[in-house]
């Protein structure tokens, strides 16, 4: 009587037979196992910057194009016919220094540090796509090997109430559309939203029953943000008077044309002409965000300010604590009610 072989023994025998066959085939081809480990796999032809930058530009979002677009143009101007794998970290450092010394000098200039940071960030974004496309290895990515300059503390700070009143008065008494300008200021003061969030607002994003607006801001973040009944009334009147459809941009000129970021630029230029201290300190819409969030943090605590700002979990204090102390929309509404001295349906 024949004894059956165990299954694992049969499998081992078949495995050895396969390995012997593979070795025989490699011997006949003149290839050793070491050749398989040391010979690089063929890679797709690496494009030049002039060829690859337009592809990446079409693959990213509008916000990324706006931030990095001018720096990608500079890269193409500097290395139009260079392949991505022909650039060294030293080449990038030279481009960074050239950008710093040729940056447009503004009142708040800090020696070109911001421009240098953006050049490196734009190249890192470009090379991340090249890694994903299999054009270069992560270890060969030159943009990873160039550190960004250390970011200096922001000069922005909260605007005192008296100064804020001066800004509001200047917006209401100058310009060709004071109703629009004062609406913009109140929207940003109440919600601490960014310009992108305001420009993305649509009539269908208004919830008048609960006095909430739906904000879509950078990095794809979204949130329902409480607003006062007064602001909600003015937003709805703005929609009725300026004729935007449910899915169209809400904020518009009197002609019905949607506003752009240029409206903010003109607004602060005009306010700066009326109030020299605004021009001297380079005050902008983002200062209003600082003002509101500072007040909320001082009066309602960090967790509420974190939620009020629309920051994602884990940001803000750099720890995991924010995950466990998230404020609710009702707490944000209560902070808004205290800020505006108006009752809110959710507070």
From TrEMBL:
Keywords: DNA recombination, DNA-binding. One of its GO terms (molecular function) is DNA binding. InterPro entries: DNA_brk_join_enz (IPR011010), Integrase-like_cat_sf (IPR013762), Integrase_catalytic (IPR002104), Integrase_recombinase_N (IPR010998), Tyrosine_recombinase_XerCD (IPR050090). Residues 154-337 form the Tyr recombinase domain. GO terms for biological process: DNA integration; DNA recombination. Residues 138-157 are annotated as: Disordered. Pfam families: Phage_integrase (PF00589). Belongs to the 'phage' integrase family. This is Site-specific integrase. It comes from Pseudonocardia petroleophila.
